[in-house]
Amino acid sequence: MDMYIYYRVPGDQAQALRIRLKKMQEALAREYGIVGAIKRRPEEENGYQTWMEIYLAVEKDFGAILNRAVDAAELNSLISGERHTELFLDL
Questions:
Q1: What DSSP line would sit under the chain, residue for residue?
Q2: Which of 8, 9, 5 is nearest to 84 (CA)?
Q3: I need a surface site. Which of 5, 13, 42, 83 has the fewest CB within 10 A?
């Protein structure tokens, strides 16, 4: 299963979020062998960027693991609104 998570980031918080997010993903890779990617839309709209985290080939329980990592990294303090998660299966 592949996990895609998107959310809005105030432009002035982008650098701080990038640093925290990269550290969190490095820790997930070390501990669980899950390598994540960070993407963002090229445009900024009304001072906000749209970001996406991508985690490929994860197990069902990865969502709980990721939520704990997000809380520990205090990512939610740097984003606007909620993190939206979508899951996709290979056909």
A1: -EEEEEEEEEGGGHHHHHHHHHHHHHHHHHHH-PPEEEEE-SS-BTTEEEEEEEE-S--TTHHHHHHHHHHHHTGGGGSEEEEEEEEE---
A2: 5
A3: 42
